[in-house]
Amino acid sequence: MTAVQNLGFSTLFDPDNPQLELQSSIVFVHGLQGHPKDTWTYNKQHVSESVEQQSAKKPSRVIKRLLGIKKKENEPNSSGTKDVFWPRDLLVNENETQKARIMTYGYDSHVTTFFEANNHDNISKQAESFMVPLQQAREENAQRPLILVAHGLGGIIIKGALEESKRSEHRPQFLSIYNSLRGIIFLGTPHGGSTMADWGLIATGIVKFTSQGCNSKALKGFQPDSEILEFYRKCFLKMLQDQRFTIHSFYEKRGTSGILGFQGKAGHSPRTLL
């Protein structure tokens, strides 16, 4: 199996048959303090099998729905495996996704690195770093349907990339990313409003735990009244009005504990989505 790189794109699956035409691209983007593999890997030692089957497979079911894949009567169970890297272990085993290129994307999401720079410039830079190689990977068929899966901060970077793509009249090769988008799955992404307060607490807690300084002005960029998040929220609202793609947003019903003193919910409810 292809090793997953910490930075940039790693292809988890690409059809071996040259005669088989790719029908879609599925891309995973991790969040703050995340990893292109570890974020999407489920360790069965920590949760009972019944919970695993509900939590680890739910996002993959949404992807199948976006691709028009019907549920199998006897869907295989991965209970014999210690860890489940579900973008590869679950999606790739589906016959219908044999025509999809599946990739995961990694970037420097360490809190002391990400929050030190100007937030708007950093998100814009990360969005550009995501968009350019994605376009290059799709050059052979730039109009191929695209599905994006984002966790936490990865959802903000995706919004930034889509905004860059949509207004790329001077770089028309990037317009295809926005035009070919069919769906986005957000997992605990703070879209704005009260959810952003949690991000400030998480970031501050991590900084205190690691005993590393962090720009207080940068942290304010992820507070409820953040101009940066409000900018991307409004941009995304305009995109939704185009009705080009659908979104699915998952959030926690139970509080998260053990994250460096933070205790709360990631993403909150759909009412705070946009």
Uncertain stretches:
48-56, 256-264, 266-273
Using the CA coordinates, give the radius of gyration: 18 Å
Encode the helix/strand succession as letters. EEEHHEHEHHEHHEHHHEEE
Report the average pLDDT across residues. Answer: 75
Would you write up a description of this structure?
With 274 residues, this protein is α/β, with parallel strands linked by helices. The protein has helices at 49-55, 58-66, 86-89, 111-114, 119-137, 153-166, 175-180, 195-210, 216-220, 227-241; strands at residues 8-13, 24-29, 41-43, 83-85, 100-106, 146-151, 181-187, 246-250, 256-259, 262-264. The strands form three sheets. It has a six-stranded mixed sheet, sandwiched between helices. A two-stranded antiparallel sheet has the order 3-4. The chain has a domain at 23-33 and 100-272: 3-Layer(aba) Sandwich (Rossmann fold). Mean pLDDT is 75; it is low at 48-56, 256-264 and 266-273. Helix 5 crosses helix 6 and helix 6 packs across helix 10.
Topology, element by element:
Blueprint: E1 8-13, E2 24-29, E3 41-43, H1 49-55, H2 58-66, E4 83-85, H3 86-89, E5 100-106, H4 111-114, H5 119-137, E6 146-151, H6 153-166, H7 175-180, E7 181-187, H8 195-210, H9 216-220, H10 227-241, E8 246-250, E9 256-259, E10 262-264
Parallel strand pairs: 2-5, 2-6, 6-7, 7-8
Antiparallel strand pairs: 1-5, 3-4, 9-10
Helix pairs in contact: 5-6, 6-10
